[in-house]
Amino acid sequence: MLAKEQFAWAWLSGLVVVPTAYFLAVSAQTPLSNGGILPRLSMLGAALVTLAVVALGARFLTTGRGSRSKGFVADERDRHIESRSMAVAYHVLMGGMIVVGCVMPFSASPWELVDAAFFSIVLAEVVHYGLVLRGYRRGTRD
Asked: What's the number of domains the chain is made of?
């Protein structure tokens, strides 16, 4: 398995586990418990820091397993897979941001906007790395 594919698996796993835990923790809070902004901000910060640790750890582990010679040097196939997956993920992200920026401000609370934006970013990344993995597993077809 290539280092890029290993990183994609690790990052996709982190993108599923960490935000799921965050959104479950947020949904477990009762709406009437108004503890201020700090507890909610600390939960979001913990999720983002955990995602950063997962990304750095995945990058370190995938480049440290003797694949330094091959590493993350992209060939034509890698660039093709990356460009196709980024194109789809971009549209997912733009759709989410249009909803967050144009529709939700009229009816949502500020934290709902933050959570929806976070969800849109995570969804776009899941789509991106899911398509990267699909490209490595099934090959590229035009």
From this structure: 1
